[in-house]
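Before a colleague's protein record goes any further, I have to sign it off. I want your independent view on whether this chain really folds as the tokens say. The record follows directly below this note.
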Amino acid sequence: MINVSFFNDSVDRNSQGSLTQSPDRLAAILSYNEMLPRFPERTWRFVAVDVKYREVLDHENRIRRLICPLESTMDFNIATAFWFAARGKGRLLGSKEVEDIHRELNIDEVSMDNEASAASSHQPLLRFARHDGDDKKDRNRASSSKQHAQPCIRQGCSRRSQSGCIFHSCKFCCGKFQGPISSFLGKSARLCPTHNHKQDGKAKG
């Protein structure tokens, strides 16, 4: 697993504390820790690619020539991360360093999230892709009877998941799952076709 993190030239590359606080880096470490027990037959390595702003400027013209389309700052930002990741040049995070960071994140989350139970600090942040049409099939299967409804996937939640939810969760937990994504995007993600799109339809009606 390769994760790219950008930082200012004033930050010491050898001082890893500030680098690991990047939202992308933290999310990648959490995902990495979840994939280890899910796929123990694989050998996983976490490669941290730390890029100074000066390095981005050095390669800016070359990266711009490779991007298509190049219509926004976001196009450049995404392409730049891919370009540095493709080089595969970084530092290999040791298992102990990853475990320590993961433990600190769990402690911080429990202390900040007073409205949820302590178990929610261990909720899985990694979600797996699904095939096209899976949501439609799920809705057809669940519409026949409510008794087949599955429990919400979020640990510590006793509610039932709603058919078609991409997170297989209840309305409340679906919003919780989308929170970090919305924070990263800087706007409401509105990813769920069940909880978000239905609300859009009601609002329009």
Observations:
- Strands lie at 2-7, 47-52, 91-92.
